[in-house]
Amino acid sequence: MALKELLKRLKFSEQSISMVLGALVIVVVGVLIFNYFRGVGKKAVPEKPAQPGEVKIIEEKGKFFPEGLPTTYKVEKGDHLWAISQKYFGSGYNWVDIAKENNLANPNKILVGQELVIPKTEVRKPVVVAAKFGEPITGSTYTVVKGDHLWGIAVRAYGDGYKWTEITKANSLINPNIIHPGNVLTLPR
């Protein structure tokens, strides 16, 4: 009843308020429809880095170079050296060569409209180096030496670092982060 009394004081009837709210709903729906149809004609082009197979690579003297280099590139909004390198080399790892060729003091800061020279250089590939933990452990016990850790011992004993938990359980270790040289560990087989 308090709402009716308030409306009587403001001299608004329920019919007037309903009409105002209805008009508000129509305006909101109109704005949503307008925004929807405004974006219908535009096609979103996803930014997709070049895949290694999309860049034509030529071989010269046993080395592999992208075709059409050297060239220049005008920086666009949202560009960074990794993406530019992927576009021309099929690998982002050549960003270092682009930065060096253009004497960039800060490779993380390139400006829209800036002209970059894309050098003719060999395509860089990631280098994966396997970690070495020493000789394999074949026995059922192992004496800890300085620098050992359970992960490395598990890799050497089982070929799987995640099995360090089995070593911890078999030896009832309270804190698996603390092992000392001279400790003799049981290696469950």
Model description:
By secondary structure, this protein is α+β, with helices and mostly antiparallel strands. The chain has three domains: 2-38; 52-118, Membrane-bound Lytic Murein Transglycosylase D, Chain A; 141-186, Roll (Membrane-bound Lytic Murein Transglycosylase D, Chain A), CATH 3.10.350. The chain has six helices and six strands. Helix 3 (81-89) crosses helix 4 and helix 5 crosses helix 6 (164-170). The longest helix has 25 residues, at 14-38. It starts with a helix and ends with a strand. 12% of the residues are buried.
Structure, briefly:
This protein is α+β, with helices and mostly antiparallel strands and 189 residues long. Helices cover 35% and strands 12% of the residues.
What layout of secondary structure does this protein have?
Blueprint: H1 2-10, H2 14-38, E1 57-60, E2 63-66, E3 71-74, H3 81-89, H4 95-101, E4 115-118, E5 141-143, H5 150-158, H6 164-170, E6 184-186
Antiparallel strand pairs: 1-2, 3-4, 5-6
Question: Considering DSSP H and I runs of 4 or more, what fraction of the residues is helical?
Answer: 25-40%
Bulk shape: flat
Number of strand elements: 6
Estimate the strand proportion.
Answer: 5-15%
Largest sheet: 2 strands, antiparallel
- Class computed from helices, strands and strand pairing: alpha+beta
Average residue-wise pLDDT:
84
Distance between the termini: 81 Å
Q: What is the CATH topology of the largest domain? A: Membrane-bound Lytic Murein Transglycosylase D, Chain A
User: Taking strands numbered 1, 2, ... along the chain, how are they ordered across the largest sheet?
Assistant: 1-2
Radius of gyration: 34 Å
- What letter string, H or E per element, gives the SSE order? HHEEEHHEEHHE
CATH superfamily of the largest domain: LysM domain
The poorly predicted ranges are 44-53
Number of helices: 6
Tally of structural domains? 3
CATH class of the largest domain: Alpha Beta
CATH architecture descriptor text of the largest domain: Roll
